[in-house]
């Protein structure tokens, strides 16, 4: 059977879901972590290095650039778009080297500068004393920093703020807890959501404080070519001030490559955030399965091709899968990028091109969780019913009150745990069963009154008050 070759369709069909089915949710990352973004940052680094060398008189004889010259150069970066992407690709087909193509691209722009501009005289300062990794490591640091600060962190912070808002909203809603899947000491729905919001915020603080390192020190990190070409310059100072000018942290000790340890640290933190978010997704999925959360149907949507009643928790299931994919990529990046054979190998080159998908799957999961949370309501009646069906959970406070009474000198309080175990283990109690037991203990009247008034729904301790710690 003859078929149309989908590989030949125009415009090209995406191979992966991030650039196809899910593109709308992750498109903002294209400005930071795509191949075109990498080339734009390479042009940016080359432009700023050229300006840095001339502005500080590093190379004797180099002309000073006017503000108009510098604006022209920075305009090359600002106007970098589809035509420039195509031009660079055309140059690279000849050079068969991506960074060399950037150098030739920028030299073309210098040649096209206004007549009389000093830019016509500084062509040999483009990529001066640089190895490709000098440009690449700085470009990747700028790309990842932009992706995290401008796209991923705002989305992740927005999600956590929404979880925190739900925690405050439901801070006083009592809920039967399940430990090991069995009825346990009641809590509140808000407190349980607050736990997750608190965990996620802690990871966000780590991610927000992570460093982005950079270096520019030559082919093996020795400033060898720099010192031979211009022995009078203080190259470590020139290097440090340039890296810091880009807003990065200077790494003074490297091989040909910047060691990428900062990337491993950042990706481990993002992966940890992912895993906590995965925990939230599975918990919410379980609450939906229990009926604690009711999913609000979307008009026109279909939950099953054959069972019309179904509203599936697909947002949380989609999030789980994408978080697992993101973590797999982030873990691989963290593990492989910290190793480079001797002074240089190229395994990091292709590895780093997968940073975008790693963040893309995480961003897609964040989007799904946010959309899923917004389509939930709470079944208060179910929560109340579950609590009222499990009076045996009051065995804990009763035996604890008996212990305290025994310490205070009240007689008849022997073996409190064992007596409550005999009463409750493997049994369902009614309110009357529990109150009859309490009434027969011989407790001080104030303690008996307090325990007799206790219900599973009121036995939530300080759960509601604990939610306030989210605001600290």
TrEMBL record:
Keywords: Lyase, Purine biosynthesis
Gene name as annotated: purB
Domain Fumarate lyase N-terminal positions: 20-319
Listed PANTHER family: ADENYLOSUCCINATE LYASE
EC number from the UniProt entry: 4.3.2.2
PROSITE patterns: FUMARATE_LYASES
InterPro entries assigned: Fumarase/histidase_N (IPR024083), Fumarate_lyase_CS (IPR020557), Fumarate_lyase_fam (IPR000362), Fumarate_lyase_N (IPR022761), L-Aspartase-like (IPR008948), PurB_bact (IPR047136), PurB_C (IPR013539)
Name listed for the protein in its UniProt record: Adenylosuccinate lyase
Protein source organism: Cellulomonas alba
């Amino acid at each position: 059977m003859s078929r149309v070759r989908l590989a030949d369709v125009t415009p090209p069909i995406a191979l992966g879901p991030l650039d196809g089915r899910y593109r709308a949710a992750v498109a903002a990352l294209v400005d930071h972590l795509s191949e075109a973004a990498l080339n734009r940052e390479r042009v940016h680094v080359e432009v700023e290095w050229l300006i840095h060398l001339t502005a500080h008189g590093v190379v004797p004889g180099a002309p000073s650039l006017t503000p108009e010259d510098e604006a022209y150069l920075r305009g090359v970066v600002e106007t970098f778009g589809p035509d420039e992407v195509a031009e660079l690709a055309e140059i690279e087909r000849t050079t068969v080297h991506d960074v060399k193509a950037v150098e030739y691209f920028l030299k073309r722009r210098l040649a096209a500068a206004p007549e009389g501009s000093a830019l016509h005289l500084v062509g040999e300062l483009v990529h001066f004393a640089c190895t490709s990794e000098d440009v690449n490591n700085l470009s990747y640091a700028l790309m990842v920093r932009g992706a995290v600060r401008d796209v991923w962190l705002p989305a992740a912070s927005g999600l956590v703020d929404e979880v925190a808002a739900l925690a405050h909203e439901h801070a006083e809603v009592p809920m039967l807890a399940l430990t090991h899947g069995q009825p346990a000491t009641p809590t509140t729905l808000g407190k349980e959501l607050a736990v997750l919001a608190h965990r996620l915020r802690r990871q966000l603080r780590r991610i927000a404080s992570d460093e982005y390192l950079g270096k520019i020190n030559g082919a093996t990190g020795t400033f060898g070519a720099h010192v031979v070409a211009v022995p009078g310059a203080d190259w470590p100072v020139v290097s440090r001030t340039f890296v810091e000018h880009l807003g990065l942290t200077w790494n003074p000790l490297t091989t040909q490559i910047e060691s990428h340890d900062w990337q491993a640290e950042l990706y481990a933190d993002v992966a940890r955030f992912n895993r906590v978010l995965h925990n939230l997704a599975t918990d919410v999925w379980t609450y939906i399965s229990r009926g604690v959360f009711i999913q609000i149907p979307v008009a026109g949507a279909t939950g099953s091709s054959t069972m019309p009643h179904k509203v599936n928790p697909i947002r949380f299931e989609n999030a789980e899968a994408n978080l697992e994919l993101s973590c797999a990529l982030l873990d691989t990046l963290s593990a492989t990028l910290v190793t480079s054979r001797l002074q240089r190998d190229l395994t990091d080159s292709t590895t780093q091109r997968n940073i975008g998908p790693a963040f893309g799957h995480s961003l897609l999961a964040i989007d799904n969780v946010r959309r899923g949370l917004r389509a939930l309501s709470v079944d208060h009646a179910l929560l109340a019913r579950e609590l009222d069906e499990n009076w045996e959970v009051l065995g804990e406070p009763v035996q604890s009150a008996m212990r305290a009474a025994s310490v205070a000198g009240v007689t008849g309080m022997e073996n409190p745990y064992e007596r409550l175990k005999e009463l409750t283990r493997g049994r369902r109690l009614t309110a009357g069963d529990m109150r009859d037991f309490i009434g027969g203990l011989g407790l001080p009247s104030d303690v008996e009154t307090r325990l007799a008034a206790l219900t599973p729904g009121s036995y939530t301790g300080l759960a509601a008050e604990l939610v306030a710690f989210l605001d600290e």
